[in-house]
Q: What sequence folds into this?
């Protein structure tokens, strides 16, 4: 739009303003102005250039009346002032100010509005709207001024006014409550320092403005810091804006490129400076004065700041005091700014992400522009960036990451590239090369600072972490991580220094001090013999640390270690760690953990860390493994009571020093120091072994298939730990095995063990031979049998043979662990046998074919299904029999009515059936056996059982129970081998019977179980002995105990007594036995009576319910006996038969007894 | 012998039959020994990687039912010599997998346990001494030319009994063949002239024989408790210098350590005995195997992770191979 057209439009309103000078008229003019602007905008849309506005031409005309009003009416109303300010803003917004006078006029009037008339240094009390409008107008005015005006604005003559304006604005920013005013004031400050335009200015302009602002720096920076750190309650926009402007102002003044021009020999190190002076002195002596004069003149020409420029000379006439920028000033300012930087740094934890983002930029700019002037702040800025790298907001994270990346690439860029860096225009060539040279030095300096900082942080870390302030520790670790990641490749040199890496590792291991106070650390497997039970690991404690809880810290330490592993000299670092491991016993666990973290990333074959050869890697792993598996670490005592598990030894074994291995200890003799470990020490040991196992796993994971060559030394030991009773260690070892399996490309631990038999069997056999030195060696075999499939069975035969041999030698001292292996073996053999028998139906009877098919079956569930079918078949048979027997008595009763003969018949029939069945079965077996040779494992089981028959006389309870378990497993394994089974059973019978009279009720209970199993497999053979030797004592036992237990309540403690428990056990196991024994009527009657006597309301509930269950079972098989027994429990009465022919019977019951309801139901059912 | 003898550093398993012969595979230049080959009674050859302890290769070297591998010999990584009882001597190309036969030499009716021996006379001539024809004779072959040079038959075969062992010896630069007969005769044959240049007799029935050229030390193991130490002088006279008595009778193999300071015997009593060459004193008795130790072998140099010097390997009838790092 043409300015004339606009003039025509605006003239009326403008004249009215001049005439009236009222709020209304100014508003009118503003509206008109708006119209013009909209018109112009639409016109611009059609073809305007978008830059020059017609308002710009009319600005003086438009503003003249209002300025006049301000001048003539110093006390006009606030609303008028506000309107005037907003009008000024509206006009200036659209104009370019080329005339300094105009600028000065407007500027002065604007700030006059804000100035307190009485004391000019204070802000006048006026409406908030007015202040905001004035500040807005000032902002627009400053952004809109042209380069000539700008030069004068920042010139010395205008400086007092500018200073005053800055002072007022700062006062507004700090003192006002309104967020809008604060924001506006900060924006105005930004405009005053030409924040947006600054990067586009010419070099000389930049330097000019910077020079001016050196005077304002203290005030601005302090004021803005005050605003920024006012607290979380203020609007985040204010804080963010304050940070941005602070950053701009400080960078503008303190940027190295500016100071380089201002300060001679800026940024040189002290040594260089002193060298220079020395050099200059010698030169002074050598050269003639004249020559020196010439030199000085020449230099003077080069450096314009040595001699005053003509312009400056002019300015110097004026009495404006300007700060002299020299080395001293820079140093002092930097020191003060350092304090402000520190206080701003606290905003890292500000709740709003926008503030944190500003802080990232703040740190980045400070670091990139002022690395030399603000040397002390470099670390702070790096730490801020590094800390915010893990921010929860994506924007902040990426900004920080980008900044760090660019800093790192800047640092590691080779020197020549810096020359190509874009410099400010008009820069003399000489200065350019000088700058690049300086930059190289700069980088060097920064590196040095970083190195020192790493050293300092590593020194402080132990002290800080002991304060247990997670936040503090985290920021410190992050800072350390930041410094290290910025150093990057250079880290190698840093870590090459022994003292550096030593300190760092020590600090980290101190930070990682593990908490070993968790009581669950000592948890042991409840039934270590139940191999099928999955280890319950959910409630196991994780690794917890003494000095921190925050998981971020651990993660950060992990990253730190990753850096160490990646950039550091792995061999040297690991050697140092191992050195620490050997020399400081109290930080062993931590060092192991540290090593794990370092190696996790240090030796990753897949990632292919360059410069790392296979030999180097192997060397590292080899020495690590050696250290981790060293006896003092790996075989540390894991049990408070060494006799507790797996380390059970007799005192006799500690006679020779050799025999006193790490775990062969006797708790009874105080001479053995190791036996007297405190709980704390043992817990610490558990954690230590756990860490060592994790380290092994990390090595395996790192090396992958290359780990194979270490298997022979590692596998055996890890398997041993997997068999430990301590849940935590066992679990860690199993995990390690899984890792190794994965590294070796095996699907499961079982597969690993199967394929690695050559690796571990020799160390194992050696250990089994020297059991006194390696008391827990049998655990290896146990784990092996536990995990591996049946193929290993054949391979372990020899080893089991060895176990038997050592059992012969050590049947007193270390029988327990050996027996456990035997138990595992017989169970494995039993499993194998069940698999074989279940396959017999489908596969041809040739043994070798079965074996082949076994190997071929890929589906591991096969066994389970087969077993299920087998069970189902058996259940089906029993059910059928039961059904027959339940239905049979009715018929028989109708026919004859004589109970006893019926029983006899039934028994005979059942016997016949059984006989036929067993004959058939035997025939089958005979057929098979004729073709088969006795396999080695069956021979071994027989041998084992024979040993058991001797050892059952041993007096120790645990051993006895274990032996009984072995016998049980053996019987199962021999189920299909009658010829082998029966002689052994015969041998076992006598000791078993002796154990039946054991005082220990637990043993008695187990014996009952064993006998029940024996009877199941070879009922015919043992039936008579059982009926004469087993049943009567049990029945009489129940009879006696039943009376005792009557009327006992829980609070009496009777429920905890062995007598109670044995009753329960016997009642539970009896049905199994009765089923195959088929006792005679009198014995049965006795038994039923005894059981029925338990069905009393006074009996303990559990006994009663067990007895009821047994009675129900008996009622299915022998309903009459049960009925009779129950009748006797009823009150005396007369039973009338349905037929009149029969006489009624008088039952002399035991009197009115209170019977539980279930019993009555059962009785009624039977009636 | 106050300290108890050490255990093997490792035991290799996986053989399907008694291990009857052993040899370390010579590594490519500048490397440590890493492989061990073993032959079994049922004709299989197994090669283990000593670093990972894994079985690398297994194949049957026997043509027929599977006869004993009596002798294994290796001097380059690419070649392996085997002698199968009743069948003959074969040279295998190890570059193939499974290895293929490069050359075959007949035993010519020899049925005993005697082992063959190979020696390089000079750069282009390699000689094979192989038992046969018959029970008493020895044939000498030029390996490169596949040419039978001569058959060495004693003048009075009856009195010598059957051939027990053959062994090339180098005395003062002259290569001769020592042939050990059942009668106890040790005859030093000049293969060029087919004449006996020296002879001595030991009192017992010899089973095994080994000779160290630089130390001029020969060991003869017999069926009895006696072990004879022999030496060969510059003028090719062979003589017994010492007679050692061991506890249990019967030796199946004897070797001298490559540096000649020790020699080792493998006994029917499943023990390995080590003697010093200087005074012929027994210095260690190693017991690990459960059955007869059938064969012994020494590695030429270090074996990584197992020994810093020569590693001793012993194969036994219990189907295992034990590795010993002793007196290194």
A:
């Amino acid at each position: 739009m043409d300015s004339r057209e606009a003039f025509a439009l605006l003239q009326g309103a403008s004249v009215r303003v001049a005439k009236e000078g009222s709020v209304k008229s100014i508003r009118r003019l503003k509206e008109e102005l708006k119209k013009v602007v909209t018109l112009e905008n639409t016109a611009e849309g059609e073809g305007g250039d978008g830059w020059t506005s017609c308002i710009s031409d009319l600005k003086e005309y438009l503003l003249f009346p209002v300025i006049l009003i301000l001048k003539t009416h110093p006390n006009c109303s606030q609303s008028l002032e506000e309107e005037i300010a907003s009008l000024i803003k509206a006009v200036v917004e659209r104009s370019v100010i080329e005339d300094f006078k105009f600028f000065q006029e407007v500027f002065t009037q604007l700030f006059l509005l804000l100035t307190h008339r009485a004391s000019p240094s204070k802000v006048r009390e006026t409406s908030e709207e007015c202040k905001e409008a004035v500040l807005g107008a000032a902002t627009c005015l400053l952004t809109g001024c042209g380069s000539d005006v700008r030069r004068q604005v920042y010139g010395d003559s205008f400086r007092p006014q500018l200073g005053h304006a800055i002072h007022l604005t700062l006062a507004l920013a700090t003192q006002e409550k309104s967020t809008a005013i604060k924001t506006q004031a900060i924006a105005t400050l930004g405009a005053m320092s030409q924040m947006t335009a600054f990067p586009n200015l010419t070099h000389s302009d930049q330097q000019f403005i910077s020079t001016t602002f050196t005077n304002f720096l203290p005030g601005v920076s302090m004021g803005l810091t005050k605003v920024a750190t006012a607290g979380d309650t203020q609007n985040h926009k204010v804080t963010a804006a304050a940070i941005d402007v602070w950053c701009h102002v400080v960078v503008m003044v303190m940027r190295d490129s500016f100071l380089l021009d201002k300060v001679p020999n800026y940024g040189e190190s002290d040594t260089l400076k002193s060298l220079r002076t020395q050099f200059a002195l010698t030169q002074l002596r050598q050269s003639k004065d004249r020559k020196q004069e010439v030199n000085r003149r020449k230099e003077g020409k080069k450096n314009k700041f040595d001699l005053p420029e003509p312009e400056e000379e002019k300015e110097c006439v004026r009495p404006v005091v300007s700060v002299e920028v020299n080395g001293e000033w820079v140093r002092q300012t930097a020191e003060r700014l350092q304090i402000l930087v520190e206080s701003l740094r606290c905003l890292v934890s500000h709740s709003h992400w926008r503030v944190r983002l500003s802080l990232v930029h703040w740190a980045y700019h400070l670091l990139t522009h002022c690395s030399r002037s603000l040397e002390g702040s470099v670390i702070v800025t790096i730490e801020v960036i590094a800390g915010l790298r893990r921010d929860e907001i994506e924007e902040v994270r990426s900004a920080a990451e980008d900044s760090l990346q660019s800093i790192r690439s800047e640092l590691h860029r080779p020197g020549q590239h810096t020359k190509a860096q874009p410099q400010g225009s008009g820069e003399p060539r000489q200065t350019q090369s000088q700058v690049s040279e300086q930059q190289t030095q700069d980088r060097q300096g920064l590196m040095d600072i970083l190195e020192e900082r790493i050293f300092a942080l590593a020194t402080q870390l132990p002290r800080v972490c002991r304060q247990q302030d997670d936040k503090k520790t985290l920021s410190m670790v992050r800072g350390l991580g930041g410094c290290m990641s910025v150093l990057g490749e250079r880290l190698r040199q840093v870590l090459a220094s022994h003292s550096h890496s030593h300190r760092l590792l020590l600090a980290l291991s101190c930070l990682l001090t593990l908490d070993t106070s968790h009581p669950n650390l000592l948890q042991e497997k409840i039934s270590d013999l139940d191999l099928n039970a999955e280890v319950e690991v959910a409630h196991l404690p994780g690794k917890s640390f003494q000095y921190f809880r925050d998981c971020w810290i651990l993660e950060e330490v992990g990253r730190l270690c990753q850096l160490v592993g990646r950039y550091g000299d792995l061999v040297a670092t690991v050697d140092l760690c191992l050195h620490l491991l050997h020399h400081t016993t109290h930080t062993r666990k931590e060092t192991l953990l540290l090593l794990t973290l370092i190696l996790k990333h240090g030796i990753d074959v897949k990632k292919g860390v360059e410069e790392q050869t296979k030999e180097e890697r192997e060397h590292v792993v080899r020495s690590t493994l050696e250290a981790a598996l060293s006896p003092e670490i790996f075989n540390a005592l894991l049990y408070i009571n060494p006799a507790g598990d797996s380390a059970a030894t007799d005192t006799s074994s500690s006679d020779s020093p050799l025999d006193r291995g790490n775990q062969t200890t006797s708790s009874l003799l105080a001479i053995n120091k190791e036996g007297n470990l405190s709980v704390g020490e043992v817990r610490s040991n558990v954690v230590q072994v756990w860490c060592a196992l994790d380290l092994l796993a990390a090595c395996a994971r790192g090396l992958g298939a290359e780990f194979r060559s270490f298997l022979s030394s590692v596998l055996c030991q890890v398997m041993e730990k997997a068999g430990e009773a301590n849940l935590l260690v066992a679990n860690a070892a199993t995990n390690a095995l899984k890792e190794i399996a994965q590294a070796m490309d095996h699907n499961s631990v079982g597969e690993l063990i199967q394929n690695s038999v050559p690796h571990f069997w020799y160390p194992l056999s050696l250990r089994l031979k020297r059991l006194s030195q390696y008391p827990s060696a049998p655990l290896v075999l146990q784990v092996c049998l536990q995990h591996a499939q049946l193929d290993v069975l054949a391979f372990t035969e020899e080893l089991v043979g060895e176990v038997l041999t050592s059992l012969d030698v050590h049947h007193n001292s270390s029988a327990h662990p050996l027996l456990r292996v035997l138990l595992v073996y017989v169970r494995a053999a039993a499993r194998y046998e069940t698999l074989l028998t279940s396959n017999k139906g489908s596969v041809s009877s040739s043994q070798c074919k079965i074996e082949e098919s076994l190997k071929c079956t890929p589906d591991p569930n096969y066994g389970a299904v087969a077993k299920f079918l087998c069970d189902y078949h058996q259940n089906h048979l029993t059910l059928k029999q039961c059904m027959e027997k339940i239905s049979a008595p009715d018929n028989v009763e109708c026919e004859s009515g004589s109970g006893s003969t019926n029983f006899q018949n039934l028994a005979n029939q059942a016997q016949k059936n059984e006989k036929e069945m067993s004959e058939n079965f035997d025939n089958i077996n005979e057929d098979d056996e004729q073709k088969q040779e006795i396999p080695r494992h069956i021979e071994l089981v027989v041998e084992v059982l024979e040993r058991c028959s001797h050892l059952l006389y041993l007096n120790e309870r645990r051993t006895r129970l274990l032996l009984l378990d072995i016998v049980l497993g053996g019987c199962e394994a021999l189920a299909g081998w009658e010829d082998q089974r029966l002689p052994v059973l015969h041998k076992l019978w006598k000791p078993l019977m002796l154990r039946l009279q054991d005082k220990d009720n637990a043993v008695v209970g187990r014996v009952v179980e064993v006998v029940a199993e024996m009877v199941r497999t070879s009922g015919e053979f043992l039936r008579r002995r059982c009926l004469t030797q087993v049943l009567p004592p049990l029945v009489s036992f129940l009879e006696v105990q039943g009376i005792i237990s009557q009327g006992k309540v829980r609070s009496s403690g009777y429920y905890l007594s062995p007598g109670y428990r044995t009753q329960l056990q016997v009642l539970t196991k009896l049905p199994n036995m009765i089923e195959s024994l088929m006792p005679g009527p009198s014995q049965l009657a006795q038994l039923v009576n005894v059981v029925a006597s338990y069905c009393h309301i006074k009996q303990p509930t559990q006994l009663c319910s067990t007895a009821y269950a047994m009675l129900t079972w008996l009622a299915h098989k022998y309903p009459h006996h049960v009925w009779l027994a129950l009748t006797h429990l009823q009150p005396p009465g007369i039973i009338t038969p349905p037929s009149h022919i029969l006489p009624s019977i008088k039952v002399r019951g035991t009197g009115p007894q209170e019977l539980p309801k279930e019993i009555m139901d059962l009785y009624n059912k039977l009636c | 012998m106050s300290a108890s003898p050490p255990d093997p550093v490792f035991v290799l398993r996986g053989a399907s039959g008694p291990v009857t012969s052993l040899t370390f595979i010579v590594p490519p230049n500048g490397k440590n020994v890493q492989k061990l080959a073993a032959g079994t009674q049922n004709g299989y050859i197994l090669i283990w990687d000593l670093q990972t302890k894994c079985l690398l290769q297994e194949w049957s070297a026997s043509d027929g039912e599977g006869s004993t591998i009596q002798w294994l010999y290796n001097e380059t990584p690419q070649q392996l010599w085997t002698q199968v009882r009743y069948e003959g001597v074969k040279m295998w190309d190890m570059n193939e997998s499974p290895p293929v036969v490069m050359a075959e030499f007949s035993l010519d009716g020899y049925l005993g346990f005697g082992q063959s021996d190979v020696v390089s006379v000079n750069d282009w001539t390699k000689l094979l001494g192989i038992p046969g024809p018959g029970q008493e004779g020895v044939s000498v072959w030029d390996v490169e030319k596949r040419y039978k040079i001569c058959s060495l038959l004693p003048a009075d075969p009856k009195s010598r009994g059957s051939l027990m062992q053959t062994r090339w010896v180098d005395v003062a630069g002259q290569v001769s063949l020592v042939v050990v007969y059942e009668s106890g005769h040790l005859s030093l044959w000049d293969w060029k002239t087919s004449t006996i240049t020296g002879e001595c007799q030991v009192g017992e029935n010899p089973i095994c024989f080994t000779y160290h050229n630089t130390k001029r030390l020969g060991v003869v193991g017999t069926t009895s408790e006696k072990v004879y130490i022999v030496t060969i002088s510059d003028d090719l006279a062979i003589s017994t210098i010492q007679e050692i008595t061991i506890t249990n009778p019967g030796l199946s193999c004897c070797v001298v350590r490559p540096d000649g300071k020790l020699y080792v015997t493998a006994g029917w009593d499943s023990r390995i005995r080590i003697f010093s060459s200087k005074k012929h004193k027994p210095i260690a008795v190693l017991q690990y195997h459960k059955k007869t130790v059938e064969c012994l072998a020494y590695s030429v140099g270090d074996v990584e992770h197992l020994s810093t010097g020569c590693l001793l390997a012993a194969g036994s009838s219990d189907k295992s191979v034990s590795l010993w790092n002793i007196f290194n």
The first helix of chain B runs from residue 157 to 160. Helices of chain B lie at 157-160. The first strand of chain B starts at residue 10 and ends at 12. The mean pLDDT of chain B is 90.
